[in-house]
Write a structure and sequence with these properties.
The N and C termini lie far apart (42 Å). Strand 1 and strand 2 form a beta hairpin. The longest helix has 15 residues, at 39-53. By secondary structure, this protein is an alpha+beta fold. The strands form two sheets. Strands 1-2 form a two-stranded antiparallel ribbon. Strands 3-4 form a two-stranded antiparallel ribbon. It has one domain. The chain has helices at 39-53, 56-62; strands at residues 13-14, 21-23, 27-28, 36-37. The model has no long low-confidence stretch (mean pLDDT 92). It contains two helices and four strands; from the N terminus they run E-E-E-E-H-H.
Amino acid sequence: MECCICHNQIEIHRHPLTGEAVWDQGHNAVPIADGRCCDTCNSEKVIPSRFRQIPVRARATLEGKE
């Protein structure tokens, strides 16, 4: 499967002991794009974008500043 953001192949997550494929569908790419994304785009683009959408007061609470 191809990442809808960077167009690289989406990683296959494997069981650490057996090596069996347990997930190959990537991550939800919303709000950056509609579709599925790779681990890197999820970490570097999607999650930060979602975090920025949280209202400032709620963000402070999540960061432990209240």
